[in-house]
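hey m, so remember when u said the tokens were messed up on ur end? i reran from scratch. heres the input so u can diff it against urs
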Amino acid sequence: MWHGLYLVKFIHKLQTFRRSGWLLHKQIFEIMATFSELINSNKPVLVDFSAEWCGPCKMMKPILEQVKADLGDSATIIKVDVDKNQSAANAYKIQGVPTLIVFKHGKPMWRQSGVVQADQLKSVIKKYI
């Protein structure tokens, strides 16, 4: 299961607070702290910055599922909705979706925008296992 599901639910909850006027700087910090904890791992973390309205992003779902099935627990895959998590998108200067970034120990090691095929993703991720 993707850690992104946890992150998306957490962010959605905070977005609800934002709409009701309750989102505080502390809560924005908590989002970024959670994101930082997830990407600051000894194993590679692939982050898929995407959006619900994005056609190419929808094409990435089965590709990422295949990559996760093939790599198992040797890598983590996180899906981040840029519309619901603008702080992380801005921090990594995401200008188009999908944008994929592989992190290791919290540092971006590889980055590409657009649809990337499973074999290429696996090859990139395996370099950092």
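this time it looks ok to me. The helical segments are 4-19, 25-39, 55-71, 86-91, 118-126. if urs says something different then somethings off w ur setup not the seq
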